[in-house]
Design a protein that fits this description.
The chain contains 19 helices and no strands. The chain is an all-alpha fold. Among the domains are: about 55 residues, no CATH class; about 90 residues, Serine Threonine Protein Phosphatase 5, Tetratricopeptide repeat (Alpha Horseshoe). It is globular. GO terms for molecular function: DNA binding; sigma factor activity.
């Protein structure tokens, strides 16, 4: 294995193991910021050692053991704070003695631990924006650049938020715990937002060589199910769960055997998971029963439900989808939602109507580098027979896309669009 191969392997392992390491160490140390610092040190150690020694058989266990040794060293160096540290040292030493296989420390009820970590990161002392950014960095392993793209914000702004949030957590000594009662309700909206963003990153990865990150979707779904038990009367918890279940039901049909994306209208709907669709529709019905039908997540779930109920693409209720997007815009003024509404209008009323909306978004600063704006425009132009313009739009989209699979898909669409006539 070449040094480059080892480096790619380390980064792939890191994406998977980072949230497990942070949650495991946070549970032991009761200090989220220290846990993240130690996790970063374990990554540095892997980058230093694995190119020479090779990737361990159990890389996650190696990283956890390394982080725990660093934790012991750090606590011993700061022995002047003896009472608390001696207790933590004793717990760590006892855990290591009782756990000869360090890999076991990675599987301690990971879904609940992730949720506890998110509740900690979503403390009211942090700003709403900082909570989500910090959680995405710790749990998804996203870079500040990737988080900035998710929020359509400058990278420097996101970096400052994360630094301030970590400092606040460290200096205030906030407990690593799942809150109860009124405190839980106070943090719930932010927690729902973070789980939503984690699922989205798993559903369509912003960066990397793979279009999907299934483990993130799995973790988000598990946390969403737990949240409906923790807050059973909260309609948006059920709305979010419905949205995730319905979207996840399409997973098997979203990529081909090589892992390349398959667009919604081209998917084999027989491969959609009908049991998961039923669970999603049930969660949506519960959200509506609780009065949350007009909520942010429930409205999105209702949109996905329109696709789930259509046996073929031609049966899709596009006028209803367009109406639901209009309602969603009434809640959140977002150019991305307006872009999605343009797609629905283009299907319901024809591509010219959709293109008029898309062209009206051309000057939106937040969409300046958003690859789906020229991608949607290319699709509408192609349907109008304006093939040369469609090709240019797809080519622009491919240069803006940061996911390798999505970039290649857009390049293929540019080639297929041709310059003068459709390719048959």
């Amino acid at each position: 294995m070449t040094a480059a191969d080892v480096h790619r392997t380390i980064l792939a392992v890191w994406r998977i193991e980072q949230p497990r390491l942070i949650t495991g160490l946070s549970r032991i140390l009761r200090d989220v910021t220290l846990a993240e610092d130690l996790t970063q040190e374990a990554l540095v150690a892997a980058l230093e050692h694995w190119p020479a020694t090779g990737v361990p058989e159990k890389p996650g266990a190696w990283l956890m053991a390394t982080a725990k040794r660093r934790a012991l060293d750090d606590l011993r160096r700061r022995s002047m704070l003896a009472r608390k540290h001696e207790m933590l040292i004793r717990d760590l030493e006892q855990e290591q003695q009782a756990m000869p296989d360090p890999d076991a420390g990675l599987d301690d009820d990971i879904g609940d631990e992730l949720l506890r970590l998110i509740f900690t990161a979503c403390h009211p002392k942090l700003s709403r924006e900082a909570r989500a950014a910090l959680a995405l960095k710790m749990i998804c392993g996203l870079t500040t650049e990737e988080i900035a793209r998710a929020f359509l914000q400058p990278e420097a702004t996101i970096a400052q938020r994360i630094v301030r949030a970590k400092r606040t957590l460290s200096e205030s000594g906030l407990a690593y715990e799942t809150p109860r009662g009124a405190e839980l309700s106070e943090r719930l909206a932010s927690v729902l937002e973070v789980v939503y963003l984690i699922f989205n990153e798993g559903y369509t990865a912003a960066h990397g060589d793979e279009w999907l990150r299934p483990q993130l979707c799995h973790d988000a779904l598990r946390m969403g199910r737990v949240l409906t038990l923790v807050a059973p009367q909260e309609p948006e918890a059920h709305g979010l769960l419905a949205l995730m279940e319905l979207n996840a039901s399409r997973t098997a049909a979203r990529t081909d055997a090589a892992g390349d994306p398959i667009l919604l209208m081209d998917q084999n709907r027989a491969r959609w998971d009908r049991l998961q669709i039923r669970r999603g529709l049930s969660a949506l019905a519960r959200a509506c029963e609780l009065g949350g039908g007009p909520g942010f997540y429930a409205l999105q779930a209702a949109i996905v439900a329109c696709h789930a109920r259509a046996a073929t693409p031609d049966e899709t209720d596009w006028p209803r989808i367009a109406k639901l997007y209009a309602e969603l815009l009434g809640l959140v003024r977002s150019p991305i939602i307006e872009l999605n509404r343009a797609v629905a209008i283009g299907m319901a009323e024809g591509p010219a109507a959709g293109l008029a909306i898309v062209d009206g978004l051309a000057g939106e600063p937040a969409l300046k580098t958003y690859h789906l704006l020229p991608s949607v425009r290319g699709d509408l132009l192609h349907r109008l027979g304006r093939f040369a313009e469609a090709r240019s739009a797809f080519e622009l989209a491919s240069t803006l896309a940061t996911n390798t699979r999505e970039r290649e898909l857009l390049k293929r669409r540019a080639t297929e669009a041709g310059g003068d006539a459709p390719q048959l």
